[in-house]
Amino acid sequence: MLATIASVNVGRPRPGFTKGELSGIAKEPAAQIEVRDPGPKLDGLGSGVVGDAVVDRRHHGGRIQAVYAVAREELDWWGEHLGRDLADGMFGENLTTRGFDVDAALLGERWAIGEDVILEVCGPRVPCATFAARMGEPKWVKRFTERGRTGAYLAVIQGGAIRAGDALAVVSRPEHGFTVPNAFAAWCGDHEMSRAILDAAAGSPEFREQLAGRLPGRR
Asked: Of 13, 54, 112, 184, which one's alpha carbon is 20 to 30 angstroms from that of 19?
């Protein structure tokens, strides 16, 4: 099956998730999106998708969390296990892919999408209370973490427009072999995996710095 973009999704600030705070997690399909490098997390543009809301700048947005991608097949897997249909954008993803295993991607892998866009895989999505409130499922963070297939955060290497139906192709793939689920396991406390990723210099310098900060005895 040809790997394609099933849906491009944008979120506006909305209340009603946690503690009355606004959030941009509720994303809806759009005709197209424009992506660009948003710069630093705290004082940059927020999302890498023009018009997409990032309310909590401390935990979301910035260069290595510019765009979030989830496989349509992963949403379908969860839909079967939860007993309900999950719409494109339900996980707060900007890109819903089809025919492509997002969670098999390697840290540092690059994707070409459509005519112009180049994105680079930077790391996993970490579930939070807002995500749990959005899903409304018991013990959602625990269940999502145990599944370990989080989708991927991406940096924008070359910006441009992305539309539903655009082809997606892997154009470069590093040799280290560390996948997004490996990075998530490291983030969740697998210190052996963390050291292996750091020793291999896998992923972006920003992600490695964050990972090192979570590893006892290594800063």
From this structure: 184
- Residue 21: CA count within 13 A, CB half-sphere: 13
Rg (CA), the chain: 16
Stronger pLDDT, 16 or 158, i.e. the higher one = 158
Alpha-carbon distance of 218 to 213, in angstroms, equals 7
Residue 74 CB partners (closer than 8 Å, separation 6+): 102, 103, 149, 151
pLDDT for 30-66, tens place per residue?
A: 999 999 999 999 899 999 999 999 988 888 899 999 9
d(CA 24, CA 170): 28
Whether the Cβ atoms of residue 158 and residue 135 lie closer than 8 Å to each other: no
User: Which two three-digit tokens encode residue 5?
Assistant: 């973009």
